[in-house]
Amino acid sequence: MAQKVLIVDDEPSIVLSLEFLMQQKGYDLKIARTGDEALQFIDEFQPDLVLLDVMLPNKNGFEICQYVRSKPEFTSMKIILLTAKGRKQDIEKGLAIGADAYITKPFATRDLVQTVQNMLKK
Amino acid sequence: MIPNWLVFLVSFCYLGFLFAIAYYADARADRGKSMINNPYIYALSLAVYCTAWTFYGSVGRAASTGLGFLPVYIGPTLIAPLWLLIMRKIVRIAKQQHITSIADFISSRYGKSSFLGGLVAVIAVIGIIPYISLQLKAISNSYTILTTFAPQSVSIDHASVPFFEDTAFYVAILLAVFAILFGTRHLDASERHEGLVTAIAFESIIKLVSFLFVGIFVTYFLYNGLGDIFSHAKSLPDFKKFLTISHDSGVTWDEWVWITFLSLLAVMFLPRQFHMAVVENVNEKHIEKAIWFFPLYLFLMNIFVLPIALAGLLHFPANTVDADTFVLAIPLAEGHQWIALLVFIGGLSAATSMVIVATIALSIMVSNNLVMPILLQIKTFLSSRSTDLTRTLLMIRRGSIVVLVLWAYVYFRIVAEYYTLVSIGLISFTAAAQFAPAIIGGIFWRGGTRKGALAGLIAGSLVWAFTLPTPFAAQAGILPDSILTQGLFGISFLRPYHFLGLEGMDPISNSLFWSMFFNIGFYIIVSFSSRASFLEHSQAVLFVKAPWSSGKDGQYQLWRGTSSVEVLQALLIRFIGERNTKRAFYRYARDHQTDLTKLQEVDQEFISFAEQLLTGAIGAASARVVIASVVKEEPFSVAEMMNILNETQQAISQKNALEKKSRELEKATAQLTKANARLLELDGLKDDFVSTVTHELRTPLTSVRAFAEILYDNPDLNVDQKTNFLSIIIKESERLTRLINQVLDLQKVESHTMDWKLTNISMGDIVNEAIEACSQIAMEKNVICRGEIPDDVPVVQGDRDRLIQVMLNLISNGIKFANPDFGEVTVQISVNNDHLQIDVRDNGIGIKEENQRVIFEKFRQINDPDRGKPAGSGLGLTITQRIIEFHQGKLWVQSAPDKGSTFSFTVPFKRKEESILP
Question: Which residues in chain A have their CB less than 8 angstroms from residue B732's CB?
Fold first, then answer.
């Protein structure tokens, strides 16, 4: 069975590019455009990995990350924070609250795909 | 009826106990363990205010006038908070100057005037003696009632009892002994009398406890509580008058207010109150406690007055018993003799405490302000070197105590028969009130002069004497009755109770009003029209500045004196004794680190020090005279005087210059602090701004890079996908360009580097041009865009390109948010008084109230979950607003959800020249 990836972002163009890249590698996909949607899909879809933007309507990425880490049933769920907030303190904060990786935008598509693949192989 | 011997025994046991307490406290103080360094003892000692008049008289007054007994206690309660201002200042001055009485205080303030001090002493003695005799009368009365009470009427005829059978006589003698033993221990009256204060505080407790006891007994044992008494009292014919203040109840509001005013002065300026509050004060801080504790004491003392009065009236109908004696008569009538005895002790304590303190306070005035100045006039007195004056001085003070007490006793035997307790008390109050203008004016107004104080005091006390004691004397038959009815010499303007034809006031209010009127009036007018002497002026400065200066500065040296240590030492030894002198000299030498034995001539500072030492013993004015007798004074020459004045003037101008500089520096510092805070704030804003701009730039860049890489890595994509991806790259690149331009614009406006080109422009043209430029995107979005422009729009000054940018921004916003199905955007220009208003109206989703402010902030876009993120940078409205601010207009929005939005701005016809920059 294909592994499941949840894309969370509110920029339509970026969502489109991520969707293309993940589909190419054959993952099962779901897309959330707001924070609330993201929480809903994490519960229902139970993805193996979440590509998570930080600046989102109604809930930000940090809050979603914290939510996932607070639930024991999601311990194996991988989270990659994907964001244009590139300040040092933003990166530290993201890793501190339990993200597995922090990739700043704009990203190299190959690196992104590689990171996702490595994480899901383990 | 209680046997004579028992009452006698109890009274003398009580007094014996009082002696023991005072003796114990003095002994402790000698061992260095002070009892009175305690704020509660201080506050209790102030309760010497409550005399036999309170103890017996309040009930009497309540029985005849209802609430009329209260103002005497309301006055002190009202003034108490102000003690922090008035009493604290007086205490501080008194300590600095070694002042020991109210006469000394006034004399010292007005240039150490002997005459003024003597005058105050005379007024005090004449005003207070009746008050002391009243206490003796109370003791005597209560004794008689206790020993002869029969349920029927009691008539007391003092005249028939020879004085050697009168208990009051022996009590008076004992009180004089007490006052001598514990009130004249030290010669320096500014030293504290520990035993006296402790005993007075103890007496305050006794009188309060016994009064509360009889109150509780009457209220809860004879009746079933307050409610019960009042419901019984309803049967009294004039019950209503006890709870109201009106003409019928015997006390009017006017009288109420006047007596309140009178007693708030009396509580500070009665000699005994001044003595307790100022002279015996150990620590200024005690006043802070006293301002609530003392009113609390008065409150407790008054709780049961009205219930006892009502109970008395119910018990003894038809005036068979004098209401002043209800507290005693009720327990006796009920057969509770022990309670009556307790009440008697309470009354005794109230009376004795007053007699003791008042006598001591008066004796200090008499000896220091009356006898001393007269003795100093006798040349041989000072020159006869053989006598030891300390003993003489103490004898004078002790002798005056005996004389005062006996005088009061005689007065009681002869005159006091005719008065009720309250009336004499209020007469004394009014006498004490005469000191108020000179004291309060003296500590707050530098302009008050000796002549002013003299004139005020003389005028006020003459009016007092004519309006209060004179009519009493007339009523007693000493003076002809016609004074009352027809006036002095038959002049109707000189009727004591209707002075100067003033009608409709009770005697006390009438006297208080007129005496204060003349006292204050003369004090102010004469002060203004007379000049102060040097000494007066320097004392005035010292008194008015008191709480804020350490005492040294402000004491001008206007004369120079020379003398030797030996001469001064010999002089001091004669007045205050060898031990005290040596001790004081030793302290002075230690504090100033000088060896006095080696000093040939002493300086001015040492002479002032010696004068202060003497002041404590013999009063300020006398000390001045004594010191002057041994010091060779050399007045300054004119040249020296001019020198001093010059120096002073220079010092003042330098001080002023320094103050000015310091204020300027303070201002500059404040400005710098503000600027710094603003810079920090801007720095923080800049940081946020950079972070946000970076974020906004990275977002389109992410899409551009991602799709470019996808296209590069996947050459075999189908044409549709390729076209789609490429169009995204183009669209996001455009977004990037637009954003960069806007950031640059904003940066220019905000850093004031925007290159504005002001010309005369027509807003109509600009609107048309902008609508034209937007027609393409309007068509794409299927929005109708039109302008409503009147024919003759006045020309305004502005930057054409920037105003077009504003219009484009607002119109494209309107198109973006207009109704997707039948969108409409209308631009309207209206001409107002002094400005144009341009409205851009769309029929879109509208903006919620809470968001209407947010949209003008940088990078703030309203993110609607249903519609996704709006296109645009989030800077458009901020830039628009800055441009309009530059044009001296306003930008605002009116909107409601689903009702569309209207963005409006104004452009004034005339630019104001100032504030070109927003």
Answer: 13
